Amino acid sequence: MKRLFGGGLLLTVLFICLGLLLFGGAQAISFDTFTAESMTNSADHRIFWLLKIPRLLLVLTVGGALAMVGGTYQILFNNSLADPYILGVSSSVTLGLVVAEIFLGWPSNSIKAMGIGLGFALIVILLLLFCFYFHKLQNMERVVLFGVGINFLFSSALFILISLQNHTLGSGSMRWLFGNIPWIELKESFALIAITAPIGIIIVIFGRYLDGLSLGDTVARTLGFNPNHVRGFYLVLTSLLLTSVTCLTGSIGFIGLVVPHCVRLVFAPRSSRVLLLISFVFGALFLAVSDTISRSILPPLEFPIGMVTTLLGGPLFLYLLWKR
Amino acid sequence: METIKPKFFFEGNELILGYPGVPPLSRQAFSFQIPHFAITALVGLNGSGKSTLIHGLIGERVVLQGQLKCFDKPINSFSSRELSELVAIVPQETVFPGNLKVRHVLSFSQLGRAGLFGKLPVFDAASIPYIVSAMELTPLLQKRLGEISSGERQRVFLARAILQHSKIIVLDEPTNHLDLKASRAFWNALTKARALNSMDILISTHDLNFVKEQCDWVLALSEGQLLFNGTKESFFEEKWDEKLVDSP
Amino acid sequence: MFLLSFTKLLVLCSIIIGASPLEASQKVPKIITTSPTLTELIFQLGYGKTLVATSEFSDYPKEAKSLPTIGSLFYPSLEKIVRFSPDYVLVDSESTPHTLVTQLNKVKLASISIHLRSVEELFTSSKTLLQEIFRAQHLTILEEKTKQLQSNTKIFSKNFRFLIVAWISPLTLFGNSTFLSDLISKYGGQNLLNSNLQAAYPQVSLEWFVKNPPDILFLLTNQKENLDELQRLAQKWWPNQKVNLVALSPDYFARPTFTPLEHISAILKDAL
Fold first, then answer.
1. Same domain for C107 and C207?
2. Residue C15 shares a structural domain with residue C100
3. Using the beta-carbon criterion (under 8 Å), do A221 and B59 form an inter-chain contact?
4. Which residues of A touch B81 (CB under 8 A)?
5. Model's pTM, two decimal places?
6. A260-286 pLDDT, tens digit each
């Protein structure tokens, strides 16, 4: 009974949020304008279909993906402070995009630049796998430390490159540090979903592997799992997911770390699959709400999304911890 | 004289154990056999190779030389699925996510059998296996692992291992970090469990009182070498317990 | 009014804190500029010969290219500045890092912060420079420029709404507190961005952009691809409105000196 009530409440909140996101915000569209026939060619119609819907799809996908990857890493590395950026894959993508823009002149939202970003990421993924499998004693801790090192290295390189870029009027830098939600077209948002949905589904389906890992490697072996294979498998999947997301938005902090944690604190899900699914939903909502807020504080100004997620998420997280 | 030779559930031939990349504890090979249906104690000082042997039993690559067999089959010939039906372990330090509820931990016991798409058992007020209530874990079902004491946690992990319904249960120094009361509760639980399910038990322990009271067979190691392999009675009669303490 | 006194106060303070003031009007002061804008401005005021060093990429006018450099716009080098032992170091209030002023004070070098956020400030700062630093006898050059500006702007009587695009993606516009925006508004333009917005280069939401088509859309670029892309976007977002797309070359319009004043009239004549 309690579960039904909780589920119903959740769905209602979801719909309210989605409604607010689509119809509200700084550029509100009233509902009758939406349904009126005369809207076919007006600015409102254009705004709705060509701007708001793709952006909403993007934001839901990215927020959900980040939360899922964060939750997965917290289990894989058995560390509740793990976030999606711990392995340095995202910073390699960002570095690739900036390098493409500065040295090759390709704008960072072009496919060519994303190709460079993907290339950098693949190099890092291969390095991580090599680091993992090469030594006779396969040790995840070493991989994490290696990833942290790569993260530092690439972030520093990124900072240096941005600082040297003194010709621009300074707008480019912020988004690489805090992430940025671009205005994309409908077909681009579908492309993103087409890439991320299969990976996300596989991650959830194989969630039993994560359950096997959650009691430690020794127990995992007796439950029929090879911990090293599971880790390698998830490493590749999550890195691919992160790469596709970071190519579009850069590194948005906080969601991957905080959302799965909150889900665990509040819901105590019965399995990793449930944890990842709930994390996806809440991550998506959280980012969507943050995005609307970032555009509504001082319209038409758009605040960097990473700032908003941190300012929103920080107190929320502390409150939940304190309550427990 | 026994006419029927007891089948060995666990045996090693000309073994040298060690972790890859690390020099082995001893260059001299040893062999041992452990009979079926016994509670076997694995004793030895710290660093004598007890944990390594146990990890070998669950399929890790620690056999540098020789062969480790389980029910006459080499361990590395078992598939992961077969291994999960064969062995359940209560390891020395269990990594645990503090927010996981006890009843979910217990349902993970069937992960090996359920695979990816099988159904996992649900343990709530409606369906509690006898072993859970026998081990007095019923009031803990809804609690999270981080909320219960370490003694209660060890019993939870024991219950999880038992609920795996495997042929062998291995316990790696299970009462190491427990006080006397919690230790006693744990051994009581283990005894009850054994009474209910007949399975082979291998316990690595320092608690020689428990060995004396409850175990049937003893395997003693020292510095990667076999010190003793035989019944409990001969272990104590021949004063191997003292020799163990005196060993280098 | 306040701006004028404030600028004067700033200049006087810097001089008092700093080194020995100018004695006779014959002595040529040694000036170092820390931004290409300031370099060009000094040349335009006729005192290019006083410059001993400039910041990197001071390409305008051509004569400035041969001057020695003291570091880049965001990273000026204190050591190089000190080596020239200048009488005054001109600091651009928008771009030079503020730490440089502190460092200059520590080594007892006079620094002057120049504000060029509007056309008024351009004239005020130029006047202060001419009077206090160069001890110019007459301000004819300024008077000429003022007259020229007045006569240019008189021709344009029509009011029009405009936006200036700095960056297409993410969409970044010139705010009201920028020189370029102020200059264009002198010609009857109204920047569609809210004047309450303090930011100089705000990143704006595309939704707002779609709902607010201007009469003229300026883009600061040399490259045809950028103009084409903006053209494509304008057709997509405002299919029913006529929006004039005008490219402003960074060679002429990127620096808040007298250069934009000379070129803007011709551009606006074509556009309107």
1. no
2. yes
3. yes
4. 224
5. 0.83
6. 988 888 888 888 999 999 999 999 999
